[in-house]
């Protein structure tokens, strides 16, 4: 373009810059050789790469400082209220934002009521701002994560909607927060809402991770410092979990034949918890493969080592099989598989003891931009076949009946067992579906591809299930997992009590 302009014979001839009242703006550049162009485009320090600037980069320091004020124990302890859970969070937020006061306010139309508040929140004095906030809440109930109401010369109120019910909006109102905090804008509102939805007093580590994950899901890629903070924190969060073992029971019509066939390792925050910490475990998927693989690597190592110790303490003759959950993406990671082999060797467990359960909730598809050499199911089948041969471990499908479940996936993958989700038990056609699963489990054996049919395990059976153990047993399904056995998941390995064996046997016979 520069050459073309120069060849037009303009008088006076054009120059490379145009002068204006202000900064000089470059319009054209003289012709440049390819060598000069490459030199100009080369990084200043060869070998060093830099990511593109993130829009949140300017807020990184403020975000990290706010997280520190909220979640460091020495800062929280002096500012926890003893007036209830909600009041404690309100006071924590007030302190973290260095605000005059804070409250949770319910707006309904033009009216409002204070649900709970910190000591200096004066409803009467703040009524003009609360009335303005009520108008905004009615006008834009879900349009923004937060907004600022101003009144008089310098007073400001940050409003963050927390929940909605009809025309009612529960809102966090923070009076005169520090301007440095308020300047964060939308990220601040996202963080405060995440704090409210978590439990910073009882579980500060998970609460802080919840806040970082909220930023991730709201804004996408985070600045590297925040990403690294989150990865380190997530390692600590997963590392703080313990593994408990839930028995898989083999059914029989005779009480002496009812026994523990194997155990599944389940993650818990502490030994007394009955439920899995699903929110913490699922956070990894909001961050991507690195978090998913790290989560699974930490948990499988913890499960293997804990199981070896529990097995040694049990005094049983022979080690029963162990199942551990794994994501599809982890099975594509050599680093994860190396951790599995290392943990088995350190614990002294034979690889055949271990079965990795692949959740049906995980898609078997390449990531955007990723290329697999074969169709996804074929590629993954070949991957599992190679791993089973080289590592000598087994694979199972978990949660069949939910997520990405398909007969092709269940029938074509090289699996030793199929776990049926409890959702099938409560389906109107439960028996028909279970019969189909049993036939699929026998298919490879019927075709001479394997010596034995795959084991089918039904999870979550309880007394409320519309199908009976007798009906399930008659389909050829002889393994169950769940609290129906009376065996609670524990850090120790236990055999079934004789009374429990007799009860289960009577259910299988249909006599109870």
TrEMBL record:
Residues 223-502 form the EAL domain. It holds the Pfam family EAL. It comes from the Bacteria. Residues 29-55 are annotated as: Disordered. GO terms for molecular function: cyclic-guanylate-specific phosphodiesterase activity. CDD domains: EAL. PANTHER family: CYCLIC DI-GMP PHOSPHODIESTERASE PDEF (PTHR33121), SIGNALING PROTEIN YKOW (PTHR33121:SF70). This is EAL domain-containing protein (Putative c-di-GMP-specific phosphodiesterase class I).
């Amino acid at each position: 373009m520069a050459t073309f302009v120069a060849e037009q014979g303009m008088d006076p001839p054009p120059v490379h810059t145009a002068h204006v009242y202000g900064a000089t703006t470059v319009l054209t550049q003289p012709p440049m050789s390819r060598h000069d162009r490459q030199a100009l485009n080369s990084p200043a320090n060869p070998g060093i790469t830099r990511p593109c600037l993130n829009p949140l980069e300017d807020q990184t320091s403020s975000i990290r400082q706010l997280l520190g004020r909220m979640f460091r124990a020495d800062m929280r302890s002096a500012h926890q209220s003893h007036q209830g859970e909600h009041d404690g969070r309100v006071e924590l937020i007030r302190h973290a934002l260095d605000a005059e006061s804070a409250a949770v306010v319910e707006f309904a139309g033009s009216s409002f009521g204070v649900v709970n508040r910190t000591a200096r929140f004066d409803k009467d004095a703040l009524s003009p701002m609360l009335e303005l906030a009520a108008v905004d809440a009615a006008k834009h109930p879900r349009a923004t994560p937060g907004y600022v109401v101003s009144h008089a010369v310098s007073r400001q109120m940050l409003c963050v909607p927390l929940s909605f019910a009809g025309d009612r909006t529960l809102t966090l109102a923070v009076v005169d927060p520090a301007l440095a905090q308020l300047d964060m804008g939308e990220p601040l509102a996202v963080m405060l809402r995440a704090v409210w939805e978590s439990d910073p007093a009882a579980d500060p580590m998970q609460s802080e991770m919840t806040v970082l994950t909220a930023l991730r899901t709201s804004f996408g890629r985070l600045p590297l410092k925040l990403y690294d903070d989150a990865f380190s924190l997530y390692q600590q969060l997963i590392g703080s979990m313990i593994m408990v073992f839930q028995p898989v029971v083999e059914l029989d019509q005779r009480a002496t034949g009812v026994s523990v066939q194997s155990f599944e390792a389940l993650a818990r925050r502490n030994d007394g918890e009955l439920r899995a910490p699903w929110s913490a475990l699922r956070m990894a998927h909001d961050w991507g493969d690195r978090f998913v693989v790290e989560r699974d690597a930490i948990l499988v190592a913890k499960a293997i080592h804990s199981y070896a110790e529990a097995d040694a303490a049990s005094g049983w003759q022979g080690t029963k099989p162990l199942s551990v959950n794994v994501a599809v993406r982890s099975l594509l990671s050599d680093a994860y598989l190396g951790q599995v082999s290392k943990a088995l060797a350190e614990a002294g467990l034979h690889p055949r003891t271990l079965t990795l359960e692949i959740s049906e909730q995980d898609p078997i598809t390449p990531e955007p931009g990723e290329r697999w050499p074969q169709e996804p199911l074929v590629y993954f089948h070949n991957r599992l076949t190679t791993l089973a041969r080289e590592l000598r471990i087994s694979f199972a499908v978990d949660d069949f009946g939910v997520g990405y479940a398909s007969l092709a996936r269940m029938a074509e993958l090289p699996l030793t067992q199929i776990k049926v989700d409890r959702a099938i038990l409560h389906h109107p056609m439960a028996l028909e579906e279970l019969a189909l699963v049993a036939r699929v489990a026998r298919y490879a054996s019927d075709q001479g591809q394997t010596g034995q049919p795959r084991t089918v395990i039904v999870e979550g059976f309880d007394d409320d299930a519309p199908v009976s153990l007798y009906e399930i047993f008659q389909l050829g399904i002889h393994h169950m997992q769940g609290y129906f056995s009376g065996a609670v998941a524990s850090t120790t390995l236990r055999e079934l009590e004789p009374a429990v064996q007799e009860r289960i046997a009577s259910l299988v016979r249909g006599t109870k």
